[in-house]
Amino acid sequence: MWFQDFFPPNVCPINAKANTFYGIMFDAGSTGTRIHIYTFVQKSPENLPELEGEIFESVKPGLSAYADQPEKGAETVRKLLDMAVDAVPPHLWKKTPVVLKATAGLRLLSEEKAQALLLKVREVFEESPFLVPEDSVSIMDGSYEGILAWITVNFLTGQLSGRNQHTVGTLDLGGASTQITFLPRFEETLKETPGDFLTSFEMFNSTYKLYTHSYLGFGLKAARLATLGALNMEAVDGQMFRSSCLPKQLEAEWHFGGVKYRYGGNKEGETGFKPCYLEVLKVVKGKLHQPDEIRGSSFYAFSYYYDRAVDTDLIDYEQGGVLEVKDFERKAKEVCDNMERYNSASPFLCMDLTYITALLKEGFGFRDNTLLQLTKKVNNIETSWTLGATFHLLQSLGITY
Ligand SMILES: O=c1[nH]cnc2c1ncn2[C@@H]1O[C@H](COP(=O)(O)OP(=O)(O)O)[C@@H](O)[C@H]1O
Ligand SMILES: [Ca+2]
User: Which PROSITE patterns is this protein grouped with (predicted)?
Assistant: First the structure.
């Protein structure tokens, strides 16, 4: 065909088989907006749809940075959506749903500002050639964020098909919130868990009763503000927030969620791992539910767990790897007690690693030797809640079961 030369093989319309379908899912995260365009093939009605590929692109900052310029925020979404116009064959546009789900960044904005942003995004969707389902632009409930990431990881690792399902728990550390999700194996866990931490979820003809919780304000960047004592303070003009987790001589400014903060090191006082750990501990200690069952089990961890492990050479960027909780602590000590040596990468590296250590140990109650499988991609697909959300969407539209 004459047009084959104009398209890369994976998006060439002639290669789109009759049983191929697409789903477009936007992740409006607190630090960036991302588009995931998934291609599926349903080979037979009785099997799970097969995921053929993913096209992924992202922009920074996230929508919440456009709290006062909703149209500009929606423009960032329009640019990403243009990619889908090129990727999906025109005859399937009308059958391809497009959805955006916002997470903690928008949860933290005022209702009015968040709704203004969502409305503008909805207008962009309406102008596109795609299928715009009801409720296509929304703020996602925190418990879904955890469940859908759990679905993604367990689908990609093959745990949701066949009889011997050994599902794995998931840990997601975003900018503004963090999620923990697993399938409890013991009756005890169900008994001792608060009701709102347990959710039944139906997927691929099975029902899973999952333990999941999203802790708003416990994402890595929100935790920086909490450690500095600046969370929920409309940065008092010129006020300086200091911490023993930062290089002594540092004085700088930081923008998060549309607010400017001034921060710096303890010029005269202490710095290093010990005082930093005590500071960070105040943010997490006693604030999170600790299910006994997780102490010994291994978890999949991604997002900022992954990024900070890469930044400090604990794992390889492409490969990921397996770590123990104590590896984060060892690295935190190394970085915090040699702060000047490391501050070229990010002045927050010591604080971030110390927070991750405290969150895992004192927050969730993991053991020093609990194994964490750090993964960014499984079979070249991003480990993000967006794939689980797309399955859920296709199921609700009757495109798949
Ligand atoms: O599709 C993805 N694949 C892998 N990592 C992702 C993807 N989307 C977001 N992340 C990671 O999520 C973290 C940022 O969190 P996010 O901006 O989603 O905040 P939130 O979840 O608190 O709203 C970063 O570590 C970033 O690398
Ligand atoms: Ca996220």
Answer: GDA1_CD39_NTPASE
Q: What is the pLDDT of residues 43-65, one digit of tens each?
A: 887 777 889 999 999 999 999 99
- Nearest ligand atom owner, CA of 215: 1
Domain span including residue 352:
142-383
Domain total of the chain: 2
Q: What residues does ligand 1 touch, defined as CB less than 6 Å away? A: 27, 29-32, 34, 62, 103-105, 174-177, 219, 303-304, 307, 376, 382, 384
Which range among 105-109, 301-305, 316-320 shows the weakest confidence by mean pLDDT?
Answer: 105-109
8 touches 82 (CB < 8 A): no
Instruction: Indicate whether 131 and 183 sit together in one domain.
Output: no
Q: Is 341 helix (H, G, I), strand (E, B) or coil?
A: helix
Same domain, 121 and 170: no
87-113: pLDDT as tens digits? 999 999 999 999 999 999 999 899 999
Q: Where is 154: in which H helix or E strand?
A: helix 142-156
Full-model pTM: 0.92
The answer to whether residues 36 and 163 belong to one domain is: no
Phi, psi values for residue 269, rounded to 5°: -80, -160
225: phi then psi, degrees, rounded to nearest 5? -65, -40
145 tagged catalytic: yes
Least distant ligand from the CA of 32: 1
In a domain, 389, yes or no: no
